[in-house]
Amino acid sequence: MYHRGYDEREPIEVRINPEEIVIVNYPGPDRSVRLDQLRQGKAIPRRYRNRRIGDFLKELEITEGRSTGIPKILRAMKKNGSPPPEFEFDEDHSYFLVRLPVHRKEKAVPKHDEATTQVTTQVTTQVEALLRVMTGEQSREEIQEKLNLANREHFRKGYLVPALEAGLIERTIPDKPNSRLQKYRLTARGHAQIS
Question: With 174 labelled, which of 86, 91, 146, 160 sits at a CA distance of 20 to 30 A?
Answer without folding.
Answer: 146
